């Protein structure tokens, strides 16, 4: 940015903690400010000003005491930051008048004082900084323009710059005064021959964060993106921008991450204007937002686009209106219309452009999800809308909270790409491939969409009712092709899968029978593949948390016959010790055709169904970045295979992202919360922990914990091994 000021105010500050290259990295408060005016036209220098600042905590670090020579007693007599900044502003204004100058720009030795100390501290103390603190000149970068061979900007210091141009440093011993005098000497030298330098370029600090949309085709530099973890769930993009106050975030550069249920998971990806500011953001690792510390890590542009990028024209049009406040509504009745939503919000919170400012979130088949996004022209209207949080619309209470453009993209991307039935994610690289239970001999898996799923069946519905419901299409059902899904009590759950003779027939049935009435209920019919159906029937779907409870508490599902586990590859003793045999159930041995003719349609009794959970929640299949635990299941095997299972050790875990750590020696009364407390600081979610059970359904003293990466898992093992949990030392081992 071009600077037109005719005066520089050389500005220096020190904190109660780290200074120099680590200034601002420890959240310590300002305790010292020193400044001096330099007239660029006359090459004159005004009187040097030095003042102490009273911090809220006068606890000085040893480094600070040594470098500044200040004591807590001196600081207790000083003025607070707000008063000192007012004194600075008044003093500089008066001196400018005496010099006959009209404008000035701050000149600092690097951006840390302005970006990492002054703006963050003022934000935390709710202070409004004068406009002069939003523009500054970086002396190191100006020197580098004149002396490009002096070395990289990040390695320059006042001493090295003075030595390079052969200017003797000031002999002043007082901290702050010495640095300002050296900066003034360097500036005057650059203004003179042979450099004749013009201080015409300045840096700016953004006044506020601008929201906006991001396209998946946009190029995002990975050197500008970070991941913030541990955020309060109710935090908005503005709250995150305030946490990074002083650093310039790109337009629409805050992407809040959602968990498997579509709720915020305490993480966000943030994109900065350049790599220099990204590096400063990384220095705010474990700084505080309220009472919570926030972890800050490097991330990639690909991760940011995965969360924030979108391709939908509908979303792009919705987000094309700039400077709008976005509110997310959750829990809307499925029958709610735009007029219902506008009536609920009321005249005190008018929606931008009426119904054009509403975006309803829907599944790929057009069914509403109960979510919607609303645009408001100003903060006042949005605040009025938020007052209706948990008020009733129809027979349901509605949740309202602040949202972002990136969250709109993420929610729409997730729902619009949701498959009818989930599939397992690919195994991460350099991780052991775990054997998975083979499909039932009755079901040949494939990607052809020659199956249908019936949802919303009357609980009294039987095979005969399904045949009557399908009418003329019953002739296209494969033998053994009807699979009823039962609940925990062994009764029909309202779901069923049907195998058709071809994909065309399945499509035809889904089109003609969707929302057709059966008795007094309409039934939804969706087309799916045998692979998807087989995956669900063989245990690929779990409860809302994504984890499997003990088998003795699981509900039941057909079909009752299963193939054996494939023989796993040979493993090292350490690996074999990790993969303990799962809980085993006894499946029914299928009757041979000679003893039992195959019926046209199969219906199995509840006592013979495999133990698993069949909670069909569309939003549970997409874990949030970096990763969340994938689906877990207990698989069935005959009792005679116990010895074989012990020898070959088939795993209870299908391939999943992240890395697993096995805990041994866990107290029997310890729960998931205890495990999360044990790994405090790693920001794990509740669905990252799987408590293991023994043959009788009791706690085995072991647990499996999913970490977002192999690096995090190894760090946890190194730091937490043999630490006590309720007095018991815990042994940890990685799953290599």
Automatic annotation (TrEMBL):
GO cellular component, as recorded: nucleus
Entry keywords, A to Z: mRNA processing, mRNA splicing, Nucleus, Repeat, RNA-binding
Annotated SUPFAM superfamilies: Ribonuclease H-like, RNA-binding domain, RBD
Protein name: Epithelial splicing regulatory protein 2-like isoform X5
Residues spanning the membrane: none
Main localization (coarse): nucleus
Family assignment from sequence similarity: Belongs to the ESRP family.
UniProt cross-references to Gene3D superfamilies, sorted A to Z: 3.30.70.330, Ribonuclease H-like superfamily/Ribonuclease H
InterPro entries named in the record: ESRP (IPR050666), Nucleotide-bd_a/b_plait_sf (IPR012677), RBD_domain_sf (IPR035979), RNaseH-like_sf (IPR012337), RNaseH_sf (IPR036397), RRM_dom (IPR000504)
Keyword Repeat attached: yes
Job of this protein: mRNA splicing factor that regulates the formation of epithelial cell-specific isoforms. Specifically regulates the expression of FGFR2-IIIb, an epithelial cell-specific isoform of fgfr2. Acts by directly binding specific sequences in mRNAs. Binds the GU-rich sequence motifs in the ISE/ISS-3, a cis-element regulatory region present in the mRNA of fgfr2.
Record-level GO BP terms: cranial skeletal system development; mRNA processing; RNA splicing
One GO MF term: RNA binding
Domain RRM per the UniProt entry, residue ranges: 224-301, 659-736
Annotated compartments: Nucleus
């Amino acid at each position: 940015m071009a600077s037109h000021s005719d005066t520089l105010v050389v500005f220096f500050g020190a904190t109660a903690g780290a200074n120099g290259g680590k200034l601002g990295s420890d959240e310590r408060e300002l305790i010292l400010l020193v400044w001096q005016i330099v007239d660029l036209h006359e090459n004159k220098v005004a009187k040097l000003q030095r003042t102490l600042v009273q911090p809220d905590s006068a606890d000085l670090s040893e480094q600070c005491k040594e470098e500044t020579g200040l004591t807590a007693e001196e600081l207790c007599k000083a003025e607070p930051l707000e008063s000192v900044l007012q004194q600075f502003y008044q003093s500089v204004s008066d001196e400018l008048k005496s010099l006959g100058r009209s404008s000035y720009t701050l000149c600092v030795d690097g951006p840390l004082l302005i970006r990492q100390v002054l703006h963050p501290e003022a934000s935390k103390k709710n202070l409004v900084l004068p406009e002069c603190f939003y523009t500054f000149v970086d002396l190191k970068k100006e020197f580098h323009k004149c002396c490009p061979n002096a070395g990289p900007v990040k390695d320059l210091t006042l001493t090295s710059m003075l030595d390079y141009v052969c200017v003797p440093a000031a002999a002043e011993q007082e901290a702050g005064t010495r640095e300002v005098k050296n900066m003034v000497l360097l500036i005057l030298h650059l203004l003179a021959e042979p450099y004749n330098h013009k201080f015409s370029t300045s840096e700016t600090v953004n006044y506020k964060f601008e929201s906006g949309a991001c396209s998946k085709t946009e190029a995002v530099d990975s050197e500008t993106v970070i991941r913030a973890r541990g955020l309060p769930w109710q935090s908005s993009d503005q709250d995150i921008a305030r946490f990074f106050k002083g650093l310039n975030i790109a337009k629409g550069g805050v992407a809040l991450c959602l968990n498997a249920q579509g709720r915020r998971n305490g993480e966000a990806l943030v994109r900065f204007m350049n790599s220099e500011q990204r590096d400063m953001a990384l220095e705010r690792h474990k700084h505080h937002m309220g009472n919570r510390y926030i972890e800050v890590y490097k991330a990639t542009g690909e991760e940011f686009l995965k969360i924030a990028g979108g391709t939908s024209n509908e979303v792009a049009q919705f987000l094309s209106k700039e400077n709008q406040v976005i509110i997310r509504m959750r829990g809307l009745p499925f029958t709610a219309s735009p007029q219902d939503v506008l009536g609920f919000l009321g005249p005190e919170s008018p929606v931008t452009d009426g119904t054009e400012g509403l975006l309803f979130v829907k599944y790929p088949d057009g069914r509403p999800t109960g979510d919607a996004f609303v645009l408001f022209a100003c903060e006042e209207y949005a605040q009025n809308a938020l007052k209706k949080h948990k008020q009733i619309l129809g027979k349901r209470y509605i949740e309202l909270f602040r949202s972002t453009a990136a969250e709109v993209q993420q929610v729409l991307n997730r729902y619009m790409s949701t498959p009818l039935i989930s599939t397992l994610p690919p195994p991460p690289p350099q991780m052991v491939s775990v054997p998975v239970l083979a499909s039932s001999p009755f079901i040949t898996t494939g990607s052809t969409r020659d199956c249908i799923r019936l949802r919303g069946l009357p609980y009294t519905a039987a095979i005969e009712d399904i045949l009557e419901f399908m009418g003329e299409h019953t002739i296209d059902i494969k033998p053994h092709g009807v699979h009823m899904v039962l609940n925990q009590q062994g009764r029909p759950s309202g779901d069923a899968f049907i195998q058709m003779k071809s994909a065309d027939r399945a499509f035809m049935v889904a089109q003609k029978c969707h929302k057709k009435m059966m008795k007094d209920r309409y039934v939804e019919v969706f087309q799916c593949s045998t692979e998807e159906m087989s995956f669900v029937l063989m245990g690929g779907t779990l409860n809302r948390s994504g984890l499997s409870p003990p088998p003795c508490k699981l509900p039941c599902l057909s079909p009752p016959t299963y193939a054996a586990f494939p023989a796993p590859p040979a493993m090292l003793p350490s690996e074999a010790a990790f993969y303990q045999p799962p809980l085993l159930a006894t499946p029914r041995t299928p009757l041979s055709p000679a003893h039992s003719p195959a019926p046209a349609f199969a219906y199995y009794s509840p006592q013979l169904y495999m133990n698993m959970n069949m909670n069909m929640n569309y939003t549970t299949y997409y874990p949030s970045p970096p990763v969340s635990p994938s689906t877990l299941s207990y698989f069935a095997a005959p009792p005679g295979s116990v010895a074989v299972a012990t020898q070959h050790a088939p795993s209870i875990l299908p391939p999943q992202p992240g890395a697993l750590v096995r805990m041994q020696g866990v107290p029997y009364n310890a729960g998931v919360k205890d495990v999360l407390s044990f790994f405090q600081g790693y920001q794990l979610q509740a669905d990252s922990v799987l408590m293991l059970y023994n043959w009788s359904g009791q706690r085995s003293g072991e647990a499996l914990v999913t970490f977002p990466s192999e690096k995090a898992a190894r760090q946890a093992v190194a730091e937490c091994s043999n630490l006590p949990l309720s007095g018991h030392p815990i042994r940890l081992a990685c799953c290599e």
